[in-house]
Structures are given as structure tokens and as C-alpha cells.
């Protein structure tokens, strides 16, 4: 206690001495501007890269078009991150099957390049610090400029990357960052989104500092204590040699100090860096586990001349992991079967741009199913997902994107490992998935060995895995440390285990079964698969068969189902019009399909009883309905309208089924253990929909970017949920919240997922220059009223600049036209279709804007006339501006709406930054309105 107090005093003193915090990390997600560019039509890409000297030729000087510091982006659409523009575009039969038929990517150049720009102020007191822009991930092939300086290119949509911008900042002034993302070529074979779909951060450190991902903490645990090993990189980006010491404190979850390291001292020349290694001992450590995900904090400080220079915080967990070739996986010495799912990173309504709370919500749905692990197939996840897995006690197979052993490819793997190695949730590095060109041959064997050696050097604490779909017994599978079986249909795991008795293994993919939520009769015309657990193809395995195989073999560490959630793309076994996969245990909204309850029955200990299908089969009276029960109760009795249809014993890891002739009423299952009633589940045939009902996963939201996942359903007059309802529902929202996306889990739905105002730009063509007496100008001048004509006649130094633009239609009342003007000369007199918009705009007013009264605009040609003393070139190479800016057209969106699919839809509501109350109302013809209130608190 005393020690903590003392430490606080020291800290405060040093902060006061410095007069500012030593390091800062500020979220950089808000206040960006977005517009489409073009992959090859330079005129549609703001002419970027077309100058005589390009941005690759000259630093800063060469930045042109939308990359230039002074480019005017006011007409672009304001957006906050994370942002995925692919969700905003329509579905299109000609678009990519694997990416969910969104009109982006190959064949859609108009929507395949996105530009983002943001203006930010950096205080003059920051001079001397190191300033970085950290991107969690941009899809994809991003290029970044700050103040016109080209910073670099990141081809992958999944790697986090960072740029040091310290030298090029305008201190005490505005700065501008421009990002160009290009998705015209695909990286994965699944929906990947488009744009800055993960967070961006502005990080400020002292010149002498611990670089990003520059600290590695890991531990060895004995019965009574843990040795905590700490490796710290220090960079000196200052101009002088630095002598300093590094000190670490371990804090417990309540913030109390547990142990402090001895000081390590070192010296660094400018631009040099050092790696310091030390260790501390934590007595009686609280271990990180699935039920008790206990996290420690490591506070690392750099001190020089009695001053605190840098302070770096690392969350970490103390735990042991071990894979045994015969007995499977052990966490903290205790056996834990991996009950996992594979997942991509998109969700209904928002695509890949998932708010953190949505990631948490999805992980919670997986946990609710009894799952304890995920595989981030097939790419590095967003870092926030790993923070949540640490916090929630979920194990992670963390996957690299592309196999390779060049320096560049190994560097990609190194970046992933260094970024994520302090997360206790991460238990395995997966270096590859189904690398069909190599997995079965000796190239695969060699590459696996090389990457594995490399991974071990960067992180000696975790094993390496490859997910292999063929050639078991050859190629990669002969050298990989942990064998990854992708699908039992591809070989014999017992045989492989016999031949490689010292190799641990995991079922990295199993399942790939097809199911549509709420569908119980296959309908190939509408492209719906049944939700019963049936074989996806002859010879393949059901979820139950897959799990039984893995559950019955100790040497298999566990199984990862393909997939936890449906995702966009890969709508196998169908193509268009299906746009999402059918593999998920849950649909794209996270609504459970029935398989969830099979797994829940055998993946966790709480009693489970689930009955399928629903009991609304009007028109099928007398027909046989397959009734299934998922449960972990010992005995199950089924009753139709209180008549028993028999009692059956539940087989281990199995399910029960009855053939029942349909009669309306109530179908009921009762579960017993040792003859005692445990659970009852019933479905009753419902009446017609009557009332809309809204439920939120949380009704109190934090102010900034918090989220409510809202389920929309309809009830009949008795209040029963109608599982077959498909009403179209319209939504209205009030208060400090917005609807960021809608979905319903229907794999063939092409409804809009986001309802946003449409932004278009009409770039005004270059003006023609006339003297005021030029005959060609006469017509333009005669449309002005007499007073204006008289005024212009007496001008001497002025000239006329003239241009025109065409409107295909008259503006309508939902449209707002704003002219974002850029100055062209001194004392500008601005006319649109003969109407004076500004009498004397000064040249200093570089960026004026005019909201145009719609009645001034015409269908067809509209005339722009500027009377001014135009800017003249001062040098031979000067090109004075002759373009008078851009007209922005905003077309307001209609109200958001969505159809229910088999009784359900989902609305995602996000808080927008102020406290207050959000009200969401839902209406549909013939139904009673539904409403929900959410409190937004500071
Ligand atoms: C696997 C592959 C996954 C997904 C799945 C669909 O072979 O690893 O990414 O494509 O098939 O069944």
C-alpha cells in the first residue's frame, strides 16, 4: 500500500516537471471525407499522379490531385471510421461470387477506388516529439500522403501499418492526410470490404521511446510463482546521444503494484535502437484462463536525468499452454478441448466496418454456444478482437495471410507476431491455409519448416500450425509442428496420427454444411437449404459426425467449425442471387440456426433443450414433419397437443428425432435427468402477425460510438413470436443515435443495408477567359439585369471567366446543391444562370461556398459567369487556377426499412457523441407500431 502511494507521488512529480503526458494515443476515426476515385481513368481519380513530376519523383512537390496538400475536398462525403464502402453499393449479378456480389472489385472500376482525407491540427508544443499514424488495417492496396508527402503503400488489407510523420508535420497549424484504397484486385476469396474499415490512431511519443509492438512479455509458471520475461526495444529518434534507464512495474487487475524490476541502463546514439532483456518474479500469480481471464498490466518507463521520458503500457496474462500429441491441448496444465469456429470479419449492415461493441457481441454469441476458441481465418484479425478475446477468455488461432519465405513474406509474418504476441488468448500462429499449390509437396514441406523456424525465433512461446486440405502424410504435414486437418473427407486422421505419433493436431476446419435459418423444407428455387444438420455433399460430414469424431479422440486437440457466422460471399452451393454463405452456425446477423443448440448441448454443461422446427405448418395438416431435439438431458419425451409420442434416450454427442404428422397446436419436448424433469420446450402454432416488437442487447449506451444490436420481430394477438413472418418494416430514429446498418439473415436478400444520403460532385470545367468587350460574351451579359450590365460596363481591369455544366434533371426537393468555390482572381463577382451569388468575393476568400436555391438551377445547360481580375502566372511554370470549384449534390436518403426473414430482422444503432435518449420506432402496414428507448450516458 505504502509502495503504491510513493509511486504515485513520483509519477505525478515527473508529469508536472514535463508539463505534459509523455505519450499519447488518440483515436483518429472521426471527421474524414470520402469520395470515389478510379483505378485507371485519371480524370476520375482527380488527375492524381499525372504531373510532370509525380509523387514518386519529388517529395511533397510531386503530390498532385487528391494527394496534394491543398486539394479541396469539401464536396466529398463526411464519414467516420470504421467505414466499408462495399456495403453501400448495390448487389450485382456480374460482381464477384466469392465477395458476395457487391458492385466493387473486378469489373466495377467506378466503385473500386476510394479516397479519404482528413484535416488535423498539431499543436506547436508537439515539436520534438515523434508522431505516428497507426492504421489497424485498410482494404486494400492503400497509399497514404500527409501534407502531400507520399508515405508508402500497404498491399494487404489485413496488416496493421504505421507511418512516422514527425518531420513533415506543420506544427501549430493544420495538416492533411490523404488515403487512397484500391480494391480492384481481390486478396482473399471471401468478402473483404473496401476502405478504412478498421481504426486509425494518432500516436505521439518522445524522441527516446519504446516503438510500437516493441515490447514482448512472456512467462514461465511453476507451482508458486511465475518468471516474467520482458524484452524491450528502445528507439532514439532524437539528435543527441541518450543515456537512460528502463524500469518495469507489474500491476494487478486492480492497479496495485505486484513487483518492480531493477533498472537497466543503456546509451543510444541518434537513430539507433537497443533491445533490453530482463525478468521479474510474480509470486502466486493469478492465471489467465477461460473462466477467469485475469489480466496484468506491465508499465514500462524510460528515465533519463531523473525525468520520466516515456511510459508504455502492456496488458498481458500469465498462463501456460501445451499441445500433447496424444492427449491434446492443455491450458495451465489442465486439459481443454478446443471447441472452436472459423470466422471472417463481416456482419450484416456494416460489412467489415464493425464497431468494437459488435465484435464483442459476436464473440459473446459464440461463447453462449459453448465455444471457447476462434480461428481468424484467413488473415490477421483487427487488434481490438484480440483485446476482447483476452478480456472474455477466448482462445485464438491467429492466422497469417499468404505463405512465403522471401524476406518480405517473413517480415509480414514478423509484423503479425510482434503485434499480437502479448495476447494470452493467442495460442497458435497459423502460417497458412489450404495452400493447394504446395501443401502436398516438398516445397510445402520446406516452406513450412522455414516459416516455422522463423516464427519460433520471433516468438519461442507458441507453436505453429498449417491448415491442410490434402496430401496428409506428405508435404507441409510432414514438417508442421501442429497438424491442421481441414475436413475429415480428405483423409484419415487416425492413420496420420499413427504415422506421425509425435505431432499434435487440431481440426482446423470441419463442417462446411449448408443451412438457412428457419427453413425446414429445401427450396432450391428460392435457394434455401434446410436447417437440419445434414451432409453437405455425399461423403462429407455433418456437424454432429464431425464433432463426434473429434470428441472421441484425445489426440485431436479440438475442432474449428467452418463457420461460426455466415459471411458475405462464397454462397456455395448456389450462385447469384445468393449473396452470403450458408456455412454458419449463425446467420450474418448472428441469429442462431438450430445447429447452435446441438453444439451448445455438448460444448458446455448447462442443461439445454432445443426443439425444431417451429409449429406453423398451415396447409401441411397430416403431412410428416421431422421433429428434432437437441439436448444434453438423458431422456426426452415428445408430445403433440399433450399426447405423448414416446420417450427416447439421448445418445452422447447425438440428437433425437421423431416423424410427426402435422396437426396445429403445440409440440412439446420434456427433458429428464434420472427421471427428474429438467427442462421443457414447446412451439405453438401462431396466428397472424399483429404487433412489432424491438429488443436491444443493451439499452444504456456510452456517448461515443457505442452500439445497440436490436432484434426486430412480430407477435400475434397472443404475444407469440411469429417464426414465419416476412413483413416489411420501416424505421425512424430520434435523439443522439443513428442506424448504421440493417440485416435479416436471408442469403438471397438484395435489400439496401445502409440508408445514407447520396453525395455527388459536378466538377466545374475549366473556364474560358474573355475580355469584357468580347462579342462572344454578349449573350452571357444580356441575361443579367440592367443594373448589373451597367455596373460591368464601367469596369476596366476585369475580365470574364465563363463555363457551364449540365443537369440531366431538375433538382428535386430532396436535393441540396452547394457550390464549393475556389478563387480564380481578385474581387470576384459570381453569377449562376444570370443571378448574382456574390458581388465582391475577395481573393483571400479562397474557399467560399454557396448553397444554391434549387429554383436557380435548370435542367440542361447551366451558365457560370465570373467577373474578376484573374490571377496571372508569375513564373513560366505557374498555372493560375481557372477552375471555379465543385458543385456538390446531396440527395437525402429515404427512411430505413427491412423485411423480416423467417420472423427476424436486425437494426444496428450507434450513439453519436452526445448524452440523451434515442427512440427507435418501427412501423409496418397493418401492424401495431413497435418502439424502444435507449439511454445514452456520458
Ligand atoms: C475451405 C476454405 C475456406 C472456405 C471453405 C468453404 O476449403 O479453407 O476458406 O472456402 O472451404 O467450404
Detailed description of the structure:
With 938 residues, the chain is mainly beta. It folds into 6 domains: 9-18 and 210-317, Immunoglobulins (Immunoglobulin-like, Sandwich); 24-205, Jelly Rolls (Sandwich), CATH 2.60.120.260; 321-603, TIM Barrel (Alpha-Beta Barrel), CATH 3.20.20.80; 617-684, Sandwich (Immunoglobulin-like), CATH 2.60.40; 691-756 and 894-937, Immunoglobulins (Immunoglobulin-like, Sandwich); 760-891, Jelly Rolls, CATH 2.60.120. The chain has 11 helices and 55 strands. It has an 8-stranded parallel barrel, surrounded by 4 helices. A hairpin with a 2-residue loop joins strand 6 and strand 7. It is globular and about 105 Å long. It starts with a helix and ends with a strand. 44% of the residues are buried. The chain binds beta-D-galactopyranose. Residues 377-378, 433-434, 469, 486, 509, 512, 562, 570 line the site of beta-D-galactopyranose.
What key attributes describe this structure?
938 residues; mainly beta; Immunoglobulin-like; Jelly Rolls; TIM Barrel; 6-stranded antiparallel β-sheet; 11 helices; 12% helix; globular; disordered N terminus; binds beta-D-galactopyranose; DUF4982 domain-containing protein; Glyco_hydro2_dom5; GalA-like; Ig-like_fold
Produce the secondary structure layout.
Blueprint: H1 2-18, E1 24-27, E2 32-36, E3 77-79, E4 113-122, E5 130-135, E6 142-146, E7 149-154, E8 161-164, E9 173-182, E10 200-205, E11 208-209, E12 215-221, E13 225-236, E14 242-251, E15 257-260, E16 264-268, E17 273-283, E18 296-304, E19 307-316, E20 321-324, E21 328-331, E22 334-335, E23 338-342, H2 356-368, E24 373-375, H3 383-392, E25 395-399, H4 407-420, E26 426-433, H5 442-458, E27 464-468, H6 476-479, E28 482-486, H7 493-499, E29 505-511, H8 543-551, E30 556-562, H9 595-603, E31 609-612, E32 624-631, E33 635-640, E34 643-649, E35 656-661, E36 666-673, E37 676-684, E38 691-696, E39 700-702, E40 704-715, E41 728-734, E42 737-743, E43 758-763, E44 768-771, H10 778-782, H11 786-793, E45 799-807, E46 815-820, E47 825-832, E48 835-841, E49 849-852, E50 860-870, E51 886-891, E52 897-899, E53 905-912, E54 916-923, E55 930-937
Helix pairs in contact: 2-3, 4-5
The protein binds beta-D-galactopyranose.
Beta-D-galactopyranose is lined by residues 377-378, 433-434, 469, 486, 509, 512, 562, 570.
Keywords: Glycosidase, Hydrolase, Signal
Domain Glycoside hydrolase family 2 immunoglobulin-like beta-sandwich: 214-319
Domain DUF4982: 622-678
